[in-house]
Amino acid sequence: MSLQKLGVCSAVLTALLWPVCGASAHIVDIAWTADGRFIHKTRIAAGKFMEICGKVSAGETVRWSFNAEAPLDFNIHYHVGKDVIYPTKRAQVSVGQDVLAATVTQDYCWMWTNKTALPVSLNVELGR
Fold first, then answer.
1. CA 54, 51, 93 angle in degrees (round to 5)?
2. Tens digit of pLDDT for each residue in 74-92?
3. Is the distance from CB of 126 to CB of 112 less than 8 angstroms?
4. In the chain, where are the structural domains located?
């Protein structure tokens, strides 16, 4: 096979595999257990983010806690049109816990961003 054909094949493979291999951001849907808990353990790649998202009804509360092996940017957010609303936003924290008291029914996302040069392990627990 000529080098020119290899270049075309490489470009096509890169375009096809980029969504699978190149994007390390991670979005997880909340799957509550029968006793109202959700536990997730992961590693966030350097420079990437991880979100845990799910519908929370107005008036419902969600206890949340997390710990990470290095500081991460953290927020809880939801979208209204093009606006992003942040009930909680913290910079460079490795542990956190609180209660989200939902004022509106929305798909809420707990999000961590790794601004370090190394992967960071993260443990999360949510409870209704």
1. 120
2. 999 999 999 999 999 999 9
3. no
4. 24-127
Residue among 74, 98, 104, 100 at smallest CA distance from 87 = 100
Q: Which CATH class is domain 24-127?
A: mainly beta
Q: Quick one: tokens of 52?
A: 């845990």
Count CB neighbours of 121 within 10 A.
12
35: left (phi over 0), alpha (psi -120 to 50) or beta: alpha
Per-residue pLDDT at 25:
65
Per-residue pLDDT tens over the stretch 5-25: 444 443 333 333 333 333 446
Instruction: State the residue for tokens 């609180």.
Output: 98
Residue type, 115: K
